[in-house]
Amino acid sequence: MRDGKPRHPPILIYHATSDVEVPGRVSGRRMFERQMRYLLEHGYKSLTPPQFLEALDDPEAASEKSVFITFDDGYLDFYENAFPVLAELSMTATVFVITGVAGGKTGLWSGPAPHGILPLLSWPQIEEMTRAGISFESHSHTHAEMSKLSPAEMAEEAGKSKRILEERLGTPVRLFAYPYGDFNEAAKKAVAETGYEAGLAWASRGLDRFELRRRSVPPARTLIPFPLRLSPAYYAFRSVGRILPVHRWVRPSSAE
């Protein structure tokens, strides 16, 4: 640990990917492919959940050039756009799915859907990609804001999604990504007590393994900002407002 915080490879977070970029919301397939090729050409290894947890447990043994690529919500366009890119490049990623709505439709959880309602991955697609080396972990059962739930409801959200995924896919589910990046100490406790090995947040302080910080990769028109997402100095840049934490490549009017 550094300053009491767990050390781990950078965790990138994406949501939707489309054949057409939607500014501020949806990453374009072409840029996603350029980003993945950048990782490959610069010697980065994409990690599976077990490999990431090994790096979390033993940072000294982890490669300096490893990255944990994550997608939240489980949109159908992952299957249509991101999965083919990853397969072509022999890379992997981890998708955090909402078990209660898999196979249905929804808008982007972070705001209004730019193209209306977006379809989600079906169980047959999830099962197919599992066989192809893509990992699926929990993003809760209903995408509820965890901090607003009772301890029993938190345990149900975390536990039910874990059980469903393990029964459907036949693989251990070790990671929980908090919906909206929202959590409190009670939520962290519920996630730990239902058998997860780590919890992934968003713009958290990253104080322990149940509030690990992820680095958002918003839509971009050039590859220039992407390497900063991988840099150890990423959070230092963010702290002075030089990199936006969420969706849009627009310089803020004041420092964060």
Describe this structure in words.
By secondary structure, the protein is of the alpha/beta class. It has one domain (11-239): Glycoside hydrolase/deacetylase (TIM Barrel). The chain has helices at 29-41, 49-57, 76-88, 123-131, 151-169, 185-193, 226-230, 234-239, and strands at residues 11-14, 17-18, 27-28, 45-46, 66-73, 94-97, 105-106, 118-119, 135-138, 175-177, 198-200, 215-216. Strands 1, 4, 5, 6, 9 and 12 form a 6-stranded parallel beta sheet that branches. It has a two-stranded parallel ribbon with strand order 2-3. The chain has a two-stranded antiparallel sheet with strand order 7-8. Helix 6 (185-193) links the parallel strand 10 and strand 11 (198-200). Helix 1 packs parallel to helix 3.
Question: Could you list some keywords that capture this structure?
Answer:
TIM Barrel; 15% strand; 8 helices; alpha/beta; two-stranded parallel ribbon; 256 residues
What is the number of beta strands?
12
Mean pLDDT: 86
H/E element sequence: EEEHEHEHEEEHEHEHEEHH
Principal-axis shape equals: globular
The number of domains:
1
Q: Can you say what the CATH homologous superfamily is?
A: Glycoside hydrolase/deacetylase
